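Weekly modeling sync, notes
Attendees: AB, CL, MP (scribe)

Item 1: holo prediction request
CL wants a bound-state model with NAP before deciding which constructs to order. AB pointed out that an apo prediction alone won't tell us much about the pocket. Agreed to run with the ligand included and paste results into these notes for async review.

Input as submitted:
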Amino acid sequence: MEKILITGATGNVGLTTLKMLESGNYPGVEVVAAVRDIKRARKIDEISQCNFCQFEFDEPATYDKALDGVTKLVLIRPNQVTDVSNYIFPFLAKAEKLGVKHIVFVSIVGAERNRIFANHRTENHFKKLTIPSTILRPSLYMQNLSTLHRHDIQDHNKINIPSGLGLVNYIDVRDVAETIVTVLMNPGHENKAYDITGPEAMDFYQIARIFSDELGREIRYLRPSAIRFVRQKLLDKKQLFVVVTLSMLYAAARSGKMNYNNDVFRSITGHAPRNLTDFIHEYRDCWLKTGKMNK
Ligand SMILES: NC(=O)c1ccc[n+]([C@@H]2O[C@H](COP(=O)([O-])OP(=O)(O)OC[C@H]3O[C@@H](n4cnc5c(N)ncnc54)[C@H](OP(=O)(O)O)[C@@H]3O)[C@@H](O)[C@H]2O)c1
């Protein structure tokens, strides 16, 4: 019997992973979603029937119960939990003590080289643990465009991202989730780290063209400076941790550090990753003037 615990289970990757594990109907596998608010999580239709446990990184008193009987852990660190020494490492120590046998950690491309990322410190910490782990380093999520940047595209026909001419190889969170499920359910991925990307790196002028072609109106890439971007996002009332996180990621893209291209997704799953043009076509409604929020 395996018991899999997923943190960040209502977020982009966690929710998709949870749905995929539930619909996979794996015999002998129990899946538990670790969430801050069970009542709120149950209101999400697609997962209302899942097993939940109450869990909060900043509440160590919730660790024991969440980890009880767990054999495999999908660790997704919420962006707002940056104090990894106080809230991620003690959780991992508890997982080790309670006998977790495999951890899949969702990091981000470049984290192994970028000391400023909280995921960098978390990746390094795995070297001190005895639990086998698999580190996945996805490139930026396509879904950022349909959530965080949706308003700019839908209402103002612009992509307001300070990445200069830097190339980004967006990946669909459904492909990240599929990678997680594959490495969880198949042996041979322990103590490995994988950079996972979409099929093609492109700059934001190219991305703006794809949007324009799909939506039938001109979407312009504004290429703002980092300072202008921060000012605009704070004026838009985005939370500070979101603005800081995005600024770091787009600075990395601007300096060419998000220009990844590899075939790792295919080698793990056996098929090609989704491409950005198809994603924009599939979700086009959310950027139409009458579009609804895509989460
Ligand atoms: N965005 C990207 O392009 C990108 C690309 C590669 C890697 N990543 C990495 O992906 C991770 C974030 O994953 P995501 O985008 O799937 O997350 P997300 O959509 O931002 O969701 C965060 C999740 O964490 C939960 N959460 C927030 N604070 C918590 C706390 N104190 N204790 C327990 N749970 C808490 C939230 O639950 P509630 O429902 O309670 O709020 C939610 O389920 C980060 O480590 C980031 O570096 C992001």
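Recorded for review: The beta strands are 2-6, 29-35, 51-54, 72-76, 102-106, 133-138, 158-159, 192-196, 220-221.
Action items: CL to compare against the apo run; MP to circulate these notes.
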